[in-house]
Amino acid sequence: MGVRERRAVIVGGGIAGLASGAALLRQGWAVTVLEQAGPVTEVGAGISITANGLSALATLGLDAATRNAGHRLRMAGTMDQSGTWLMRIPRSSSGKVPQEV
Ligand SMILES: Cc1cc2nc3c(=O)[nH]c(=O)nc-3n(C[C@H](O)[C@H](O)[C@H](O)COP(=O)(O)OP(=O)(O)OC[C@H]3O[C@@H](n4cnc5c(N)ncnc54)[C@H](O)[C@@H]3O)c2cc1C
Fold first, then answer.
1. CA–CA separation, 90 and 74 (whole Å)
2. Which domain holds residue 23?
3. Statement to judge: residues 52 and 83 lie in one domain
4. Residue 28 and residue 62 in one domain
5. What is the rounded CA–CA span in Å between residue 57 and residue 70?
6. Distance from the CA of 14 to the center of ligand 1, in angstroms?
7. Is the CB of 13 under 6 A from ligand 1?
8. Which atom of ligand 1 is least distant from the CA of 12?
9. What is the pLDDT of residues 71-91, one digit of tens each?
10. Do 56 and 19 belong together in one domain?
11. Measured from the CB, is residue 15 less than 6 Å from ligand 1?
């Protein structure tokens, strides 16, 4: 008797659905992801991925591809509508120096 194939159907091809699908694929499951929207295209938006997110991507074997597709942030923060910084986080060697301006 052969090994029964484990199959999963995931509804939603967002971050959670695709990450779940990638994780199950790595475990040998046959995965189908159902997405109601049309094909993925560039929409002019970006997403910031923090250290815990990169760690999760590494677990899925996707960190190198993500790093290659993205850019390392040197600084991030929040401005008000006049362009005045409300909060800035400069990148440091420790990566742990939030600085309020
Ligand atoms: C403006 C904005 C900026 C953001 N910036 C960041 C950021 O920089 N960094 C960060 O970590 N997070 C960011 N987030 C949050 C991040 O986008 C969400 O946490 C993440 O996308 C959630 O993923 P998800 O898979 O849970 O849900 P979703 O991304 O909402 O995915 C759900 C998917 O399921 C599909 N779906 C729903 N119902 C059905 C159905 N019945 N059949 C088939 N498909 C279905 C939807 O079309 C959708 O594609 C941002 C969010 C917004 C709105």
1. 6
2. 7-70
3. no
4. yes
5. 13
6. 5
7. yes
8. 34
9. 888 888 889 999 998 988 875
10. yes
11. yes
Nearest to 21 by CA among 29, 96, 5: 29
Number of domains in the chain: 2
Which residue carries 């993205």 as its tokens? 70
Rounded average pLDDT over 6-34: 96
Residue 57 CA, chain-centre distance (Å), reads 7
State the pLDDT at residue 73: 82
What contacts 73, CB < 8 A, 6 or more positions away?
48, 91
Which residue type does 53 have? G
Q: How far is CA 88 from CA 53, 75, 76, 97, in A?
A: 20, 7, 6, 10
